[in-house]
Every structure is written in C-alpha cells, then in structure tokens.
Amino acid sequence: MGVTAVASWLSLGEGSTPLVPARALSESLSCELHLKCEGLNPTGSFKDRGMVVAVQRAVQSGARSVVCASTGNTAASAAAYAARAGLQAVILTPAGATAGPKRAQARAVGARVLEVRGTFDDALRLCRELGERDGFTVVNSLNPDRIEGQKTVAGELIEQLGGAPDVVALPFGGGGNVTAVARGFEEAGASPRIVVGEAEERATTWASAIRIGVPAHAERVAELVAAGRVEVVRLTEEQLRAAWERLAREEGAFCEPASAAGLAALELCDESTLAGKVAVAILTGHGLKDPDAVPQPVDAVVEPTLEAVLEVLS
C-alpha cells in the first residue's frame, strides 16, 4: 500500500516499506515484535510519505518555493520532492546540529541550505516568518498535508499484519509523526496502544533527528496522552544507544540513532503491556543517515595471505 492520491510525475515510490519480524527481540520482550523499516523510503526516512503530499499541494497553490526548518531528514525529503516538482527548496538548519549525509542529500538536488546560529526552534521560527511571504510554502509537519501523508503508515501496518497491532512504538521529536500515526489508526477504526520515546536531553541528544527542544505538536501529543491513547517514555542517552546497538547486532537493522527510541521505550514498559501482544517498532530513518554515530576502526590490518587472516581470527 503506497501513499495515495499523489501524482505519478511527483512520486518517488514512497510507502510500501517492509515489515520485518524481530525474532531475537521478540523473545527478550515476550511479544511478537515487528520492525517497520521506514528508512527504505526514497530519501531514507518516513518524511517522504507526507512530503510528497505537501509538495504536490504547494504546486497546486502556485508556490515558487518550499521552506523548512530541519535537523536533516525533512531537509533531504523536501529538497528531493521540490527538485522533482521544479520548485526551489530553502532549508534552515541549526548550526552544527545536522548529520553530514542529510545535508549532502539536500545540496545534491539543488536546495539552498542555510545554517542558523541558534537552535532548531530558532530555525523553525524563521521558517514560519518566511512562509508568510508570497510564494513560499512551509513543509514542516505544521503543514497539515504532511500529516495526511504520514498517517498512511497506519493503514499499511493493518494491511501487512492482517489487523491492527496491539502496540506501536516510535520516536517523539517534534510530534508530527506521533500525531499522524494516531490519526491514521483512529480513521481506520483501530486503537492500538502507542508508546513513544523522547530523549531526556531533548536539546542536546546524541540522536540528532529528535534534537528538538520544544515539540511543535506538544499540545496535540498531550491531548493524546490525556485520552489514554499515547504513552510518553523519557529516555537517557545510554538507553537510546543500547537500543540502537541491539537493533543492529541482534536483528541486523541498521537505523539512525533516533529510530531506536521506540524500541528503547518498549524495553521500559511494564511487562503486562507487551506479554503475548503483537507490537511494531517504527524505525524512522536509515542508519546511513548518520554514519558518524558508528565507531569505525578496523579490527586489524593484515598481509594479503590466508595465514595472516586466520591468525587474526584465531
């Protein structure tokens, strides 16, 4: 199931991402856990689902440029779809806070990338101000078209599982994806428990994709919490890193650090939340989005002989 109602000339093939059983983690959590691999969207993150809709609507409204504030994934996605649509993309990033590969994606397709001497919140404020000028459309998740596209992941999960999961876990950065997932399940008539992980050190976390001090959708997420639909779990940096390493080493799922926040949150849930349940952890971005998170020394430098290789392996 792909993102619907999108013009074929604009689509890059977003949606229809794999749902992978996590056998080792299922055993340790006493549940049936699946990993929704959103890093296999065209630009490497879940943002593409909503961005294609937002850019199409921008074209229809006569916009000349799209603008976004970003810690990286929104930038890469906005830039790609803007290029395909023939629009200019203006990207505002907090200085020194964006992974290099994400900036490279945006620059490669012709976006104007500006670093703001400040936080993500400063960049978002400027983005909103620019969006008030004629010809600019803001494509952050404040744009309702983004939510409309991103909610399709819920229907996709129901289709892939043959029914709604009992529990869904995902990261909580700005809150747009939490809002979209909750809306998607509600419109499908389903009500899984939604568990979201946020960094305790929001403004400085190692998981750069959720390095957002003030969530744009904080009020809506609070409403979902009050309604009993969402549970927010605060995570230490150590808990985030441990979950990220487990995904890679136990399941072969290499995701960017922020993507592990859902699993980290599940690991802190009460046993009754997961025991015997069907659960999904949404992995929001590919690991190649932030390769610097991985220590990269080689194990050894060897002579080009079998004996030298075997000596190291012994």
Distance between the termini: 48 Å
Under CATH, the topology of the largest domain can be stated as Rossmann fold
Structural class: alpha/beta
Helix share bin = 40-55%
Beta-strand residue percentage: 15-25%
Mean residue pLDDT: 94
Largest sheet: 6 strands, mixed
H/E topology pattern: EHEHEHEHEHEHHEHEHEHHHEH
User: Could you tell me the number of beta strands?
Assistant: 10
- Count of domain modules: 2
Q: What's the architecture of the largest domain in CATH terms? A: 3-Layer(aba) Sandwich
Number of helices: 13
Tell me the overall shape: globular
Strand order of the largest sheet: 1-2-10-7-8-9
Radius of gyration, in Å, reads 20 Å
> What are the low-pLDDT stretches, counting only 5+ consecutive residues below 50?
none
What does this structure look like?
The strands form two sheets. The chain has a six-stranded mixed β-sheet, sandwiched between helices. A four-stranded parallel β-sheet has the order 5-4-3-6, sandwiched between helices. The chain has about 325 residues and is of the alpha/beta class. The chain is about 40% helix and about 15% strand. The mean pLDDT is about 95. It has two domains: about 20-45 and about 145-295, Rossmann fold (3-Layer(aba) Sandwich), CATH 3.40.50.1100; about 45-145, Rossmann fold, CATH 3.40.50. It contains 13 helices and ten strands.
Strand and helix layout:
Layout lengths: L18 E3 L1 H7 L2 E6 L9 H14 L4 E5 L3 H13 L2 E7 L5 H9 L3 E5 L3 H12 L4 E3 L5 H7 L1 H10 L5 E5 L4 H12 L5 E7 L18 H9 L3 E6 L1 H15 L9 H7 L3 H4 L3 E6 L22 H8 L1
List keywords for this structure.
Rossmann fold, globular, 40% helix, single chain, six-stranded mixed β-sheet
